[in-house]
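Supplementary Note 3. Input sequence used for the single-chain structure prediction.
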Amino acid sequence: MANVTSVSDLLSKQRVNAKDNFKTLYAQVKKIAAKFDIKEEIPRVCRLQTDRNNVPDSTEEEYYRRAVYVSYLDDFCNSLK
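The predicted structure, written as discrete structure tokens, is reproduced below.
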């Protein structure tokens, strides 16, 4: 149980510092993507759709941080509790 608590605490800290942590992670992902000639794209966003993750964003990095990274951290932390 102590291991679960320590992992949960670590992920909670990651969530608090999500902006800085994701910036580092995203830079690494962009380097790898560049090697394979993969371009950054934001999925199509529908203004009126309510069942999709329509996160307002200004950059690709912000979109993926909000829509994927933070959502995943929140879900994973909640599943450990």
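Residues 53 and 68 are 9 Å apart (CA to CA). The chain has a mean pLDDT of 85.
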